[in-house]
Amino acid sequence: MNFVLYKKQNSMKQTRIFLTGATGAVGSQLVQQLTSLNIGFKALVRTPAQAEQLSKLPNAEAIVGDLADLVTFEYALHGIEKAFLLTNSSEQAESLQIGFAEAAHRAGVPHIVKLSQFAAHESSPVRFLRYHARVENRIRELGFRYTFLRPNLYMQGLLAFKEQIKYSGQFFAAVGNARVSLVDVRDIAAIAVAALTEPGHEDQIYDITGPEALSHYELAEILSNVLDKPVSFIDVSPAEMEQALLGAGFPEWQAGGLIEDYAHYARGEAAAVSDAVARITRKNPVSFAQFAQDHRFLL
């Protein structure tokens, strides 16, 4: 049985935006930025506790449901003008996202803003890039207006190594000296806000990167300068990285996918720098040095 919490103010206009993935890294930033602009939204969450927390925000409506169970949320898509599509990483992500798109189509939603991935393509050797491309193609087939957001490697992904950086001054990956144009999730969310609230983003694909492409050795140098302590990057083999991921509790499918991701980075296929953040948000993208400064209390 679905459980719905409402939080409305007298000034709240009819909600036209629907969010999935509202409690994750990008989604929480998206919620924060929409709230700061006093823009109302509906958000699908998994638990009553998450719904209660979201419903404390002005102009927010939380729907408890499950993407695998359309009956729990499909009714809430009626009257929506733009839906933001994001799911957590899982083996079912492709089918869940396609199922959501088909539900949104039945409900008459005209526009989907999908969080995809840099270099998404059905023929990619990277499983995550293939699944994103298949979802994108299904959204096109259904006749939606679409905005596909394709961010590169998240700067916040480095926070997975925060304990190692804090206590041993090291982090590792199977990437060699290849440069990657990492992006801050705050900039990804800012472009999502624009796509959800402004005209002119229909049928667009945005590659989203930071302001420069950096090697992981250069990331370590920047961290050393910002944190005022030595930080080293250790290049490891794909097999060593996979064993470390499995040892840290990652399931085999996810560890294998991440190894494919890092092989893609190691081939130099993620070094291009896009102007999308500055062009769309009219603000300079967050640099890695700024990211490190903003998160130094964690590192």
UniProtKB/TrEMBL annotation:
SUPFAM superfamilies attached to this UniProt entry: NAD(P)-binding Rossmann-fold domains (SSF51735)
Q: Which residues form the NmrA-like domain?
A: 14-260
> In which organism is this protein found?
Dyadobacter jiangsuensis
Which PANTHER family does this chain map to? PRESTALK A DIFFERENTIATION PROTEIN A, PTHR43162
The name this protein goes by in its record: Uncharacterized protein YbjT (DUF2867 family)
